[in-house]
Every structure is written in structure tokens, then in C-alpha cells.
Here is the input.
Amino acid sequence: MTPPSGRRVRHPRAQHQFLARTCSITGVGSYVPHRVLRNADLEKMVDTTDEWITTRTGIKERRLAAEHECTSDLATEAARRALQHAGVSPEAVDLIIVCTITPDMPFPATACLVQARLGATRAAAFDLEAACSGFLYGLEVGQQFVVSRTCETVLVIGAEKLSSIIDWKDRNTCVLFGDGAGAVVLQHRPHSHGLLTTVMGADGTKADALCMPGGGSRHPATPESVAARLHYLRMDGRETFKNAVTAMHQAAREALERCGLGIEDIRCIIPHQANRRIIDAVAERLGARPEQVFVNLDRYGNTSAASVVIALDEAVRSGRIQRGDLVLLVAFGAGLTWAAAIVEW
Ligand code: UT7
Here is the structure.
């Protein structure tokens, strides 16, 4: 295929003969809960202002799941919408991957709960945890099953109920996050390049910058761990911010180089929606025009593993992405982890 600039796309995966089959996104869908929490509401909960949140982050409001709603509920609804978009029945799904840091419970996997709710009786199911980079990690893992012909149809879901791990007394974090879910259907589509490349990375030496210390084998739940507020998300904002800009820029640049593309060949850039200032800094370093960048964090805040795929769904439904367009997806999160992918829509 030839992008608008006339430059020929290089398909890095084509170098591997045994990976000759391509993998495309054939359906996308998302779901956010109905309840809206505005900056004005947060002003009544912690020492903050709409002005601070807006200028420092770009967030105006976020969605919160109801008490009875959990991650699998959000994930199931997003998955139904993606399957409908692809025209695929739940029985046709071979594999379900749920990317999340807020599973319904430590085990079994939330993907198994979604499998039951969908009636996807033939599907294998597992969860993947790479925080805000989770959906892009999941996209790469899912596509491996399609190109290797192990699976025909894979459902990759990013879903979070972050409100369940937010310390509503900590103004440094509680203003940033929201709940939501998005899903894609992965299949081979003839005559399409589909997913061209994915760049992934991690730096575990900075794991403390963004984490939830309690609830695992290191600090199992005890009255003391609860009293010490170990079961809430903790973040060193400045450290995370710095690393996010560098890692997202480098991952995106490497993905473009692998495909022999320039930023001008990309129709739409879908960055992880954590902070408007991070998005602007990455776009500027890439030399992107503002109209290439899709932003919806003003309405949803940071939904971690769901953020990129909710934005992708909105970009597709609003007509910002058309069949054949090249799309750059890029994310960063706890771990630290990061990833960038280029997709022919
Ligand atoms: O999704 C995973 C990736 N996550 C991210 O990428 C998030 C990365 N980090 C960020 O987005 C930003 O660092 C934040 C939005 C979290 C913070 O913005 P900042 O410009 O880095 O602020 P800061 O942490 O340097 O804090 C500046 C001041 C501090 O006061 P002092 O110490 O200067 O007196 C904070 O206490 O702002 C204060 N502050 C607030 N003030 C009002 C922090 N949170 C708030 C708040 N309202 N909600």
C-alpha cells in the first residue's frame, strides 16, 4: 500500500516468511460507565481546584463505575460492541485477553469471567498485566496467535475500575484516573497489512514510581496493611512524567523507523491519555501536527489499560480514522512499561 505521502510502507514482519499471514483489527468497541465525576466535585473532596487540574493535566471530568459494577462488567460490554462491529459471534472467538491492573479478583482471570458472560464457549482466556501499556502489549500478544495460525479470532480487551484502588484522600492521584473499557477483534483480513509493527519495553528498576504495594505476596491484606493504605495506587508524578515523555517518543520513533515511515505518513496518533502536557510534549518531539493527535482525556481522565483502545474506538466512530489509514498507538505506564504500534486500519 502507499500512504498519502507516496512513500512505500515497509512491513517489518514480512522479513519472516513463517509470519507471512497478517493480522488486522476487524472490530472495535468501548464502554464507559454513566456516572460523571467533574473537577468541581473533586473540589469538595480534596484540597484542589478545577483550575489546577485543568492546567496541569487537561482533565475536566472522568467516569466512575457504580459500586456493583466491576471490571468484567465494563470489559464484557466493550467486547460485545467490538464483536458487533466486526460482525463476529461470541462462539467464533478462539482467545480472550483482558489487559488490566484492576481484575475482579486476584484469580481466576477476569478474562474467564468475560468468556462466561459473553458465551464465548470455544475461547481460551487469560489476563495480561502491563498497566497503562497493557492494551498495546495485549495487541502484540494477540496478533502473534493470529499470524501463527494458532487462532482465527482473538479478542483483546483493556478494562479498568481504577476507582477501586484510588485513595480518595490523596489529591496527587485521585484527580487523575477514571473507569472504562475498550476492545478489539483481531483476525486475518486479506489484502490488508494490519498491524505493521509493535515496539515494547520495560524498566523494572523504576517499579516504585507507580505501584500498589498491598494485596500481593509481599504485603498480603492484613488490618495493618489496610491501615497503612497499602491497597491504593501510589505515584511519583514528576518521575513518571519525565520517563513517559522520553519512552513514548523513543518507542514511537523506533516504530516509524522500522516501517520506513515518517510522522507525516500517519493519519492519526492515539497516545495514552494520562496528561495533556505529556501528549503535547511527545507530539512536539515527533514533529506531529496538532490535528494528527487524538485526545479525549478531558472527558475520561487516565483509564490505564483502557485509555488507548477507548480513544481508538472514538477516533474510528467519529470518522477521524478511515479504512487504509495508518495509525500510531503509543503508551506508557507502571512497570515501568511502554509500547508503540503502527496499524493500517
Ligand atoms: O498512566 C501512567 C502514567 N502516568 C502519568 O504519566 C502521570 C505523570 N505525571 C503527571 O501527569 C504529573 O506529574 C501530575 C499531574 C501527577 C502532577 O503534575 P506536576 O506538574 O508534576 O505537579 P507536581 O507533582 O510537581 O506538584 C506541584 C504542586 C505540589 O505542591 P508544592 O509541593 O509545589 O507546594 C503538589 O502538592 O501541585 C500540588 N498538587 C496539587 N495541587 C492542587 C498536586 N496535586 C494537586 C491537586 N490540586 N490535585
The domain at 12-187 is CATH 3.40.47.10 (Peroxisomal Thiolase; Chain A, domain 1). The chain has a mean pLDDT of 95. DSSP finds eleven helices and 13 strands in the chain.
